[in-house]
Design a protein that fits this description.
This protein has 2 domains: 128 residues, NAD(P)-binding Rossmann-like Domain (Rossmann fold), CATH 3.40.50.720; 173 residues, Rossmann fold (3-Layer(aba) Sandwich), CATH 3.40.50. The protein has 318 residues and is an alpha/beta fold. 33% of the residues lie in helices and 15% in strands. The protein has 11 helices and 13 strands.
Length: 318
């Protein structure tokens, strides 16, 4: 019988979810509610198991992890991002890697709209001033009639584009795999950056996308532009972004992801008054948690049944 391990459920989400109990009744499952804390501990926890369900992106599956765990056959990731997994190493060591695409798309798109509105309407600053006894006026920006630029037309990018259209924004997009059938106006990247009042990033982190938005990109954006990032921090040159915000080369930013998470207490972003920061929580709602965790379990079941789904890395063939 195939054995399953969950090495990193802290804070606990898989253990309490509705799909966990039925899985544990069907298969032997070893469950760790604490984070591994080190590569050595991770290897110790997973080396004797065929199937691993990974909950936290802070748990890294490196070449040495795969080399030390020859029994592993399938790694099911909860979430879309795979930047914590060496996919090429997984393939070399005969491990199938799956993820849970799409389940958080609506939640993250709603979060993007929220960040856009909060920055455009200067909600945080207005709230602080009202609490302090002031009654400020004329500090908001209307979105209707403005241009929303979507970088990346995956499930999340498409959902946010629809929300942008719903509030009366003109939507333009750039994507790595252009497809006019998606129904959005496609432009080159620099045109998008120059024309957009709101630029929202929706790319998967990879060696090709790391540092994708840097000093040049911020320099050609409108001074009135708002930048939104709910994808991954390293896709953006953080130092260049901070400089653009400090110098008011762009008007503001709404950020859910960062180079280092949690943010250090002395981070430069914390001193800026034109940013709104959230703790990598755009896709964390009860609905998304249940759907995503259930799909991570379904991916293991599908693999065991000989019909793997949502595969992002396959074993190399010889």
């Amino acid at each position: 019988m195939v054995t399953i391990v969950i090495p990193d459920d802290f804070p606990a989400v898989m253990g309490p979810c509705e799909a966990y109990g039925p899985m544990a009744e069907r298969h032997p499952v070893t469950y760790f509610e604490s984070l591994p804390g080190s590569e050595a501990t991770l290897i110790e926890r997973i080396r004797d198991f065929e199937a691993v369900i990974n909950i936290r992106s802070s748990t890294k599956f490196t070449e040495s992890v795969f080399a030390s765990c020859p029994r592993m056959k399938v790694l099911s990731i909860w979430g879309t991002g795979t930047d914590n997994v060496d996919l090429k190493a997984a393939a070399r060591h005969g491990v199938t890697v799956t993820n849970t695409p799409g389940v958080a798309a609506i939640s993250i798109a709603e979060h993007c709209l929220m960040l856009t509105l909060v920055v455009a309407r200067r909600v945080v600053g207005l709230h602080q001033q009202v609490v302090a006894g002031a009654w400020p006026r004329g500090q908001s920006v209307q979105l209707r009639g403005k241009t929303l630029g979507i970088i990346g037309l995956g499930a999340i990018g498409r959902q946010f584009a629809k929300l942008g259209e719903a509030v009366g924004m003109r939507v333009i997009a750039w994507t790595m795999n252009p497809n006019p059938a998606l129904g959005f106006t496609l432009v080159d990247r620099d045109t998008l950056l120059r024309e957009s009042d709101v630029v929202s990033l929706h790319l998967r982190q990879s060696p090709e996308t790391t540092g994708f938005i840097g000093a040049h990109e911020f320099d050609i954006m409108k001074r009135s532009a708002i930048f939104i990032n709910t994808a991954r921090g390293p896709i953006v040159d953080e130092a260049a972004m901070i400089e653009a915000l400090k110098a008011r080369h762009i008007a503001g930013a709404g950020l859910d992801v960062f180079h280092v998470e949690p943010l250090p207490s002395n981070h430069d972003l914390l001193a800026l008054d034109n940013v709104v920061l959230t703790p990598h929580c755009a896709g964390v709602t009860p609905e998304v948690l249940e759907a995503g965790l259930a799909l991570a379990i379904e991916n293991v079941e599908a693999y065991l049944n000989g019909n793997p789904q949502h595969v992002v890395a396959r074993p190399e063939t010889t």
